[in-house]
Amino acid sequence: MDYKETLEATVGVPFSQGNAVKVLKNGDEIFPAMLKAIKAAEHQVDFLTFVYWEGNIADRFARILAKKAEEGLEVRVILDSFGAAFMPEELVALMETSGVEVEWFRPFKQWKVWKSDNRTHRKVLICDGCVAFTGGVGIAEEWEGDARNPSEWRETHFRIEGPAVKGLQSAFLENWIEAGRNLKIGLPWHENNGKTPLPDDHSIQDIPLQVVRTSASVRWSDIVILYKTLIQMAQESIFITTAYFNPNKPMVQRLCDAAKRGVNVQIMMPGKHMDKRVANIAGGDHFNDLLDAGVTLWQYQKTMLHSKIIVIDDFVSCIGSANFNHRSMLKDDEVNLVALSEELAETLVTHFNEDLEHCEEVKGETWKRRNVFRRALEGLSRPFKQQI
User: Which sequence ranges form a coiled-coil region, renumbered to this chain (predicted)?
Assistant: First the structure.
């Protein structure tokens, strides 16, 4: 199968060539790489995040962004009004007084009724237009460390170089413009935008990347099209890692169909350490169908699992901000990248297998014997599944 041709035809976004991707596992790798890129920036820093809470890392990000603005760089920050609602006010004040342009995405007082349930869930950092970061990480103490205990979340983030950086830049600009800011035509501060990567010997080179940017929709989005295409074109294997597993019935059916045609379908999600227990309950409503079809379900037990990764046939990798749930597919602004690389897929599958050491498998017979209270909670969650 020609994966590239299929994905371009269905999603409608061409792949760019000559990109480099570095996999960053957990806060101990993610945050130093992001802070290093900000420190090295000479012209502009754009930063968009859903979660910005408290902790040492929150302070460090605010201070380095403020410092770069004081040095004369153009520093633009977008914070989601819901996800960053508990950010310390003094950190916002520090950035703003230093010259950082801070915008809040859909402030509560300005929300219109039809927008009140839609947020930006994107996580994007772009430095000088030539290096970018995306994935699942939020700026809060929960993401620090190396997933050694329940206070340190398990996360995967990515450092991107090459033409695909422009796609991530467009995801930032879309939210920046909606926040009321003007669009600057061109990027005169860096004439080689997206073409001159910062050297990193540990990146995987020459990867074709497709940037899939999706905005909140009533019934459909490019993320839905992307996920359906990935599942339907899988011939050998599907490995899904997601922080919140709550797909709709048609998506569940596609996973079941894949397993029934002989595809090895494995899904990993959080277990006992879960920041939103209702998501775990809502997703469990479909476990019987998945297990009966031959899908293998894993629950990560060491800490909160927050990674968002899909690997198809040990070659196609889908990475970014979107979870495998209703909200990411239909309600929030997201950005994902699709990579065609055996080396990247191998790295991500290796991480999947390493994480299996800290997982418990959901067994069909055991699940069918779950208690009445759990079944009742699943039933109660059904009317609210589209909010989860």
Answer: none
Q: What is the pTM of this model?
A: 0.90
**For the stretch 218-236, what's the b/e string if a residue is b when 16 or more beta carbons lie within 10 angstroms of its beta carbon?**
eeebbbbbbbebbbebbee
> How many angstroms separate the CA atoms of 104 and 9, rounded?
35
pLDDT of 384: 47
DSSP string of 202-257, one letter each residue = TSEEEEEEEEEEE---SS--HHHHHHHHHHHH-SSEEEEE-S-EE--HHHHHHHHH
String of b and e for 24-50 (b: at least 16 CB within 10 Å)? bbbbebbbebbbebbeebebbbbbbbb
Maximum separation of any 2 CA atoms in the chain, in Å:
63
pLDDT at 383: 46
Tens-digit pLDDT profile for residues 125-148:
999 999 999 999 999 999 999 999
For residue 159, how many other CB atoms are within 10 A of its CB? 26
pLDDT < 70: residue spans in the chain? 109-117, 185-201, 216-220, 275-284, 326, 364-388
- How far apart CA 304 and CA 387 sit, in angstroms, is 20
DSSP state string for 26-82: SHHHHHHHHHHHHHH-SSEEEEEES-B--SHHHHHHHHHHHHHHHTT-EEEEEEETT
Q: Domains (ranges, CATH) in the chain?
A: 20-205 (3.30.870.10), 208-387 (3.30.870.10)
Our separate counts of H helices and E strands in the chain read 13, 17
CA-closest candidate to residue 168, choices 217, 130, 203, 220: 130
Q: H or E element: which one contains 23?
A: strand 16-25
